[in-house]
Design a protein that fits this description.
By secondary structure, this protein is of the alpha+beta class. Helix content is 29%, strand content 37%.
């Protein structure tokens, strides 16, 4: 129990290079979530929203102040806020229409967030996501149950944004 409470995890650079770029989250991290959603839109529409952090407020209106250093590409940095939490992030995997992952830090916590997109035969997309978070005492104020709820909200918002008719 105490080991999870004080688990810091690997450095953010190790998480980025050794975990995220190889399609892994930190399985030892004390905070995890995974879920999936079927989006009634083709992968390119889902990708257009997911790969552009400046569009993330369409997914969740708590997201704001998004600054991106360039188009989605490996190692491109971006910052954003989710409510009061300020995030510093970097894309780790960018395979258009198939997979995107990023790492990030906020208030001493380190995260890996992955999305896999799978085209279906009927023009829909199954989006699988998984995330891990680590940091000392993180579980006291942000347990896995809270991340699981946030993940569900994120996927519902992604579905809504990707299914919306183009403007």
């Amino acid at each position: 129990m105490l080991d999870k409470l004080f688990y810091r995890g690997p450095s953010i650079d190790t998480l980025h290079e050794t975990y995220a770029k190889r399609g892994q989250i930190d399985e030892r991290a004390p905070v995890h979530a995974a879920d999936r959603v079927v989006v009634e839109a083709p992968p390119d529409r889902v990708w257009a929203v997911l790969s552009d952090p400046s569009r993330w407020p369409e997914i969740d209106d708590a997201i704001h102040d998004v600054q991106v250093d360039g188009p989605a590409a490996t190692d491109v940095r971006f910052t954003w806020a989710n409510g009061k939490a300020r995030m510093k992030s970097r894309f780790a995997v960018v395979h258009p229409g198939r997979e995107i992952a990023w790492t990030g830090t906020s208030s001493g916590a380190k995260a890996v967030h992955r999305h896999l997109l799978e085209a279906t035969g009927d023009g829909s997309t199954v989006v699988h996501t998984e995330e891990s978070m680590a940091g000392p005492m993180l579980t006291l104020f942000y347990p896995s149950a809270k991340l699981t709820a946030a993940t569900k909200t994120w996927l519902e918002g992604l579905k809504r944004a990707a299914e919306a008719p183009p403007a």
